[in-house]
Fold each of these.
Amino acid sequence: MSDIHGCFTAFQKMLEKIGFCDEDRLLIAGDIIDRGPENYEMLKWFENRPDNVEMIMGNHEYDFAYEDVPHLLASIGDYRGEDWADRYLPDEDHDLYETINGMICKNNVTPDMLAGWAEMIRELPYYKILEINGKKYIIVHAAYVSDERYKMIYGSLNGIEEFYIWNRDAFLYDDGPGDTIIFGHTPTISDAGYGTDGKVFVEEYRGNTFIDIDCGYVYKERHPQANMAAIRLEDEKIFYLES
Ligand SMILES: [Mn+2]
């Protein structure tokens, strides 16, 4: 799954729908927070996630862990003091989706909790490579290319982590053939890019398969065709929450 964006209730419904159990292995390709209403629930779940759940870094986690939380901690100084709340000011520039401010106001989240979550997020991998039924699957938030390919395009390895979480051109991947790249980041509700009217985008290109599983669930109010999707890699069956 990918791009749950604070839609914790829907995420739980999806786990129920797919009958997620101890024998399964769930990979979430990033962006569990921001935009949606239940960021606190999502982060608490993430903190206590079972061993058979693996997370991959998304750009929203990255910003939370490397920009927003460190900025907040620095701005309140000795935050372990009782008066930290007096020194805390909501900061739009460093909390674009009001995720942190929302959790502080609604859920009594403390700087220590935020620091702990940021630390956990900084441990996340940027991609996973799996072999299932003899086939290579690469799971990443936005796009993946090998180090060699990246160096050929950009001259050095500088910025490759940002590439994994931000790049919107998954087709830059040219290893294989026969590999499958699974990613999110760009919702398929859009007309451009990977737009498939809220269905999972699947396309063969130069012998590899590209699958965008971000069906834009968090935008459902404005885009009724949006959906939450899960793909079962052993047979590539796709599940939608709203079906
Ligand atoms: Mn993203």
Amino acid sequence: MRASLLLILGFTLAYSESFITKEEYASGLYHNPRGVGCHLCHGEKGEGRLIARYRDKGENKVFAGKPINKLSFHEFYEKVNSRILGMPRYYLTDTEIQTLYYYLHHVEFKHASKQPAKAQ
Ligand code: HEC
């Protein structure tokens, strides 16, 4: 009985939003937005990322996720919820879009300082 109460309490604490900061929530959403993480195609800080090089009809081509950390909120909002070739459709809520925008414009610096130290 006591064990199951503790279990319930543990779950309640783990899932209660007040235990993670806004930065942590924003970073979590960017990396795992109910689908493929944005960072995989747009880079850790939204700086853009080369996804693949390939040849098409004898020409060298690249498939890349554009930088998304310099857009105005309006542009970001419009694009994220539109159909874009090569990008999954996420159906994000307004709050989620605001949170992702917050991540790209406020959390990036913190994140950059968390780079692992160089091996000696
Ligand atoms: C599978 C790869 C992929 C993932 C994952 C992905 N995107 Fe994209 N995204 C793209 C591609 C490809 C484009 C179009 C680039 C182009 O037009 O050259 C794009 C375009 C965009 C644009 C418009 C950029 C512009 O200036 O036109 C925004 C904003 C954007 N993505 C945001 C996001 C966000 C936020 C996420 C996560 C919720 C995300 N993307 C996840 C591939 C991806």
